[in-house]
Design a protein that fits this description.
Pfam family, one: MAP65_ASE1
Protein name: 65-kDa microtubule-associated protein 5 isoform X2
Largest sheet: 2 strands, antiparallel
Number of helices: 18
Oligomer: single chain
GO molecular function: microtubule binding
GO biological process, one term: microtubule cytoskeleton organization
Strand content: under 5%
Structural class: mainly alpha
Number of domains: 4
Subcellular location: Cytoplasm, Cytoskeleton
Length: about 575
């Protein structure tokens, strides 16, 4: 029985021990030397093949390590370049494994930074793309992928440029949102004033503008902003048209109220309408004040008043005629009332004239009459002053003809005061007449027509007054001359017959009686003969024979008064 070869531990087994064991086996078997040599050669060849294969594998692994190291260095350099990092790559020192161990953590760190940088780029690019889509209003959001990012340029500078661009877009978005909000607020105000459906108007522009739709972004696209602007212009134009229409209706209301003298209480019902007459478009902001319902209501009221006006138009026409005549009479202008009323009656009954146009024409006449009255007012005031002065002059003449004006009767002191004032006023008559004449001539030169006063040219009346006044002054002058001669004759008679006339007491008594009766002649015509009663009576009789022709309306005037009157 063949002996069992000794076992060897793998860790202790060597080629020599295995060869010895093989020799022992061969010896037992009885293997020939030739076979043994062939087997050993075969074993040697197999060992060489194994060594060759292992060497090739090791050489290949070495080349792979060199290639990995080169690729890692190149990749690290690219990452540093794309990231814009200032990282210094470690130089190759030591074995290949040491070099790989040195560069591997640097490469992994660069790759991690690249991934983070790509995420940042994706996030910013996504936001930019979203805002651009909102501005464009395409409604289709396109997601951003890694392929949309230029991975060769992941520097911080590029990232900063993207962030700046994003900030600009965000600011643009904020501005657009503010514009949209402002436009919506303006549309809300305009629709409230005109009672137009606000939500319907917004939905017609863009459904996203409805605030009731939660979670929906409001459109800020160019098209939406353009639509909002267009709607605002359209609403403003509509508001302007409605306001103009309302103002026209309000003016018609006021005219009709004035025509028919509508009570204030009835007018208050439409006070919200009349307040709009002088309002501008921007000032009108009351809810519903320009709604279609309000306009229709005002139109109905105007129609109703026009119907009422047609029935009252005749009365209104004659009321205007009365007003016109009152204006003319107030400024002493000639007006043929009867003829004017007949013409108006025939026009109204013929039906060939629009009563509204007739009223408007009469309003124009009233306006023109008021302007004429205003232009005549100054002259009329001066004319009244002249008339008053002439009346005072006439009264003063009558007063001075009264021989009893200085008698102690009731009211005599009042007449004295009036006479003093009248003399002052009469002394101003020449300047009054001169100024009035100049005013009238200037007025006639400007208007090109004569100034009539009570159907007579005022200049004619003034000229006639001046002539009459000169005649009166001449008569007064002649009377004073006759009076002077009369007094001179009386003095001469006193000088000739003074002793003889002093014995006639009855005449003296009669003279005293005349004085008691209040005749101002005895008191005011004091002459030297006045101290002797009998001679005074005889002198009066003698003077009566010497001067038989004396006007009845002449009165004895004191010399001082006559002098002042002459001046």
């Amino acid at each position: 029985m063949a002996a069992t070869p000794p076992s060897f531990s793998p860790s202790r087994t060597t080629c020599a021990s295995l060869l010895r064991e093989l020799q022992m086996i061969w010896d037992e078997i009885g293997e020939s030397d030739n076979d043994r040599d062939n087997t050993l050669l075969q074993l040697e060849q197999e060992c060489l093949d194994i060594y060759h294969r292992r060497v090739e594998e090791t050489r290949t692994h070495k080349a792979d390590m060199y290639q990995w190291l080169a690729d890692a260095e190149a990749q690290a350099a690219n990452l540093v370049s794309s990231l814009g990092e200032s990282t210094v790559l470690p130089r190759g020192k030591g074995s290949l494994k040491q070099q790989i161990a040195t560069i591997r953590p640097v490469l992994e760190d660069l790759r991690s930074k690249k991934d983070e940088r790509i995420k940042e780029f994706l996030k910013i690019k996504s936001q930019i793309s979203q805002i651009c889509d909102e501005i464009a209003g395409s409604g289709q959001y396109k997601s951003v992928t890694d392929s949309d990012i230029n991975q060769s340029d992941l520097t911080s500078k590029k990232l900063g440029e993207l962030k700046s661009h994003l900030q600009e877009l965000q600011n643009e978005k904020i501005l657009r949102q503010q514009k949209v909000k402002s436009h919506i607020s303006t549309i809300c105000e305009l629709t409230e004033v005109m009672s137009i459906d606000f939500m319907k108007t917004l939905n017609e522009i863009h459904p996203s503008l409805d605030d009731s739709l939660k979670g929906t972004l409001q459109s800020i696209s160019n098209d939406t902003l353009a639509r909002l602007t267009g709607v605002i212009h359209s609403l403003k134009r509509e508001k302007q048209q409605r306001l103009q229409k309302m103002q026209e209706l309000a003016k018609l209301l006021v005219e009709l109220w004035d025509l028919m003298e509508t009570p204030t209480e009835e007018q208050k019902e439409f006070s919200h309408v009349t307040r709009l007459i002088s309002a501008s478009t921007d000032e009108v902001s009351t809810r519903g004040c320009l709604s279609s319902e309000v306009i229709e209501q005002v139109e109905g009221e105007v129609h109703r008043l026009n119907v009422v006006k047609a029935s009252k138009m005749k009365d209104l026409v004659f009321k205007r005629q009365n007003e016109l005549e009152e204006i003319y009479r107030g400024v002493h202008m000639d007006v043929d009332s009867e003829s004017a009323r007949q013409i108006l009656t025939s026009l109204i009954e013929s039906g060939n004239v629009d009563l509204s146009d007739l009223l408007q024409n009469m309003d124009g006449q009233i306006k023109q009459a008021k302007e004429q009255a205003l232009s005549r007012r100054d002259i009329l005031d001066r004319t009244e002053k002249w008339k008053f002065a002439a009346e005072e002059e006439k009264w003063l003449d009558e007063y001075e003809r009264d021989e009893n004006r200085y008698s102690a009767v009731r009211g005599a002191h009042k007449n004295l005061k009036r006479a003093e004032k009248a003399r002052i006023l009469v002394s101003k008559i020449p300047s009054i007449v001169e100024n009035l004449t100049a005013r009238v001539k200037a007025w006639e030169m400007e208007k090109g027509i004569p100034f009539l006063y009570e159907k007579i040219p005022l200049l004619h009346s003034l000229d006639e007054y001046i002539v009459q006044r000169r005649l009166r002054e001449e008569e007064k002058r002649k009377y004073r001359e006759q009076k002077r001669l009369h007094e001179q004759a009386a003095v001469e008679q006193v000088a000739l017959f003074g002793s003889r006339s002093a014995t006639k007491k009855p005449l003296c008594q009669s003279n005293n009686g005349n004085t008691i009766a209040g005749t101002p002649t005895g008191r005011r015509l004091l002459t030297p003969s006045g101290r002797h009663g009998t001679s005074g009576g005889k002198e009066r009789r003698e003077s009566g024979r010497l001067n038989p022709i004396i006007p009845v309306n002449y009165v004895a005037l004191p010399k001082d008064d006559s002098v002042s009157r002459g001046n």
